[in-house]
Amino acid sequence: MKATIDWTGNASFKATSGTGHSIQMDGPPDHGGENLGPRPMEMLLMGLGGCSSFDVMNILKKGRQDVTACHTELEAERADAVPSVFTRIHLHFVVTGHNLKEKQVQRAVSLSAEKYCSASIMLENAGVEITHSYEIRDAD
Asked: 69 partner at 20 to 30 Å CA-CA among 17, 63, 80, 136?
């Protein structure tokens, strides 16, 4: 897997994945940024959310669950001292669908957390406390 980061002025950087997808990252105005994109630590948090959400959806689809939406909310805390690393992250999955089985949703979230989500497991191994919760909503 490859990626490139190119400085685009002030505190702004363009990140490009090996598959050719780009996103603009930027620092806050008090650090020379212009608020043109997410901060690098926000990207890390979003990457974790994307990785885990992908796993959950993949597991539920394989389990033949009729999922119509999956919304993941992430809340993180960072250390007050430099480096301001993540200390705690909570992922809350809101899974919507028809006749979803709670046991399968719980299993999907657990498997992502404990076995499949590389980002989550890597951060936990670095000492970040990661917790998960979920709720199931019926599709109208």
From this structure: 17
